[in-house]
Amino acid sequence: MTIQLESIQNIDQLYDRAFSILEEQKNNGAKTFGLATGGTMLPLYERIRKSTIDFSNCKSVNLDEYVGLPKEHSQSYISFMKKQLFDTKPFEVSYLPNGEAEKPEEEAARYENVLKSLDLDFQLLGLGENGHIGFNEPGTSFRSETHVVTLTDSTKRANARFFNSIDEVPTQAITMGIGSIMRAHQILLIAVGEKKRAAIQALMNGDMTEDIPVTVLKEHDNVIVLTDLIV
Questions:
Q1: Annotated catalytic residue, options 130, 136, 145, 147
Q2: N or C: which end of the chain has fewer CB within 10 A?
C-alpha cells in the first residue's frame, strides 16, 4: 500500500494543499486531468479559478454524469463543471459522459473507449459516506470499467440537497469504473467531514473489500489522501 495520508484540520489549509498538489502535477508535465463534482470540490475549484494556472493545452475527463438529466439542468455535471471551472479555466478538450444518450449502456462503452485512448495523469476523487468513489456503489467489481449504475438510497439522500426534493434526484448515472479510475498515475482523494470517517478508517486500517469501494486504493502505487479527520 502506498497511500500518503495528510490530516489537515484547518479547511482552508487543506484546500490550499490540494491546489498545490494539482499545480505541482501541472508544472511537472501532467496533460490529462480526471475531475470530480460535488460539494467537496467547490473550494478547490474556487482556488483554481482565482489562480494563474492555465489548462488550455490540457485535456480533462469527468468521473460521471446523471442519466436522463438535460445538459442545461442546473444540477447536471456538465453544468456544474462549466460554472465551477470550465467557463473560467477552459481545457483544450473536456470529456464527460452524455447522460442524455438514448442507450446509456452504449454511451458507457463509448466513454470507456475515450478513457482508454488517453493517458490519465491525475485523478481527483471525492468520497461517499458508504465508501463509493465516482458512483461506484458498494459491491462494484474492482475491475469494472465505465458502466451504468443505479444509485443507492443513501447516495440519493446525500445528493438531494442539490435538488428541490429527493424525488428529483436521478435514479441512475454513468460512471467511470473502479478499474478505469485505477489507471490514473496519481490519485488525490479529498474527504471532509465526520460522515466520511468510517470509509477513511476502512481505507487506512481495514481490508480491501468491494463492500467499501474506496479500499481498492490500497492497490494503487501513488495516492494522496487529504482529510480534516484524525484517523
A1: 130
A2: N
Is 137 noted as a catalytic residue in this protein?
Answer: yes
Is residue 118 within 8 Å of 30, Cβ to Cβ? no
Within a domain: 193: no
**Pairing between strand 122-125 and 32-35?**
parallel
| Phi, psi dihedral angles at 157 (to 5 degrees) | -65, -40
Give the number of other Cβ atoms within 10 Å of residue 54's Cβ.
11
Q: Tens digit of pLDDT for each residue in 14-36?
A: 999 999 999 999 999 999 999 99
Is residue 212 included in any domain, yes or no?
yes
**Count of structural domains, the chain:** 1
179 within a domain of the structure (yes/no)? yes
pLDDT in tens, 194-229: 999 999 999 999 999 999 999 999 999 999 999 999
132 is catalytic: yes
Helix H or strand E segment including 18: helix 11-27
Catalytic residue among 112, 137, 145, 147: 137
In a domain, 216, yes or no: yes
CA neighbours closer than 13 Å in the CB half-sphere of residue 165: 1
The residue annotated as part of the active site, out of 65, 107, 112, 132, is 132
Query: Residue 156 — very low, low, confident or very high, per pLDDT cuts 50/70/90?
Result: confident
Q: What is the span of the domain harbouring residue 183?
A: 3-129+142-188+198-227
User: Can 64 be counted among the known catalytic residues?
Assistant: yes
Say whether 130 is catalytic. Answer: yes
